[in-house]
Amino acid sequence: QVQLVESGGRLVQTGGSLRLSCAVSGRISVIYAMGWFRQAPGKEREFVAAINWNGENTYYADSVKGRFTISRDNSKNTMYLQMITLKPEDTAVYYCAAGKRPTLNSGSYYEEYEYPYWGQGTQVTVSS
């Protein structure tokens, strides 16, 4: 089993910055591709960003391109999401997820079914 624990979510003002972390533990025999998703109140969960096993390939939702940066430190079994220029519409519970393989399929990296392991989420609230 793989466990994921997010941290770093909090209340921040519009235009502010925040870094989320996702710590991976458990039976890690493969370095997985990983991703961030978010769910705003009353909305479906949506893809935010994804990264392959060595960080060489990253993917972003159009709504966060240029403002969010996904990264990982495999020596620490931790993934990050650096967020800048935050907007009220970024308010959501942010979830980290781990994929089934080291790499991501370019046609499905944004699909939840590619990620069998999920954290419990961390709340990010951006005040206007």
Explain the overall architecture:
- By secondary structure, the chain is mainly beta.
- The chain is built from no helices and 11 strands.
- Strands 2, 4, 5, 6, 9, 10 and 11 form a 7-stranded mixed sheet that branches. A 4-stranded antiparallel sheet has the order 1-3-8-7, with no helix packed on it.
- A hairpin with a 6-residue loop joins strand 4 (34-39) and strand 5.
- It starts with a strand and ends with a strand.
- The mean pLDDT is 94.
Largest sheet: 7 strands, mixed
In helices, the fraction of residues equals: under 10%
What is the string of helix and strand elements? EEEEEEEEEEE
End-to-end C-alpha gap: 40 Å
Beta-strand percentage range? over 45%
The whole-number mean of residue pLDDT values reads: 94
What class would the helix/strand composition place it in?
Answer: mainly beta
Radius of gyration: 14 Å
List keywords for this structure.
128 residues; mainly beta; seven-stranded mixed beta sheet
How do the helices and strands line up, and which of them pair or pack?
Elements: E1 2-7, E2 11-13, E3 18-26, E4 34-39, E5 46-51, E6 58-60, E7 68-73, E8 78-83, E9 92-98, E10 117-118, E11 122-127
Parallel strand pairs: 2-11
Antiparallel strand pairs: 1-3, 3-8, 4-5, 4-9, 5-6, 7-8, 9-10, 9-11
Brief write-up:
By secondary structure, the chain is an all-beta fold.
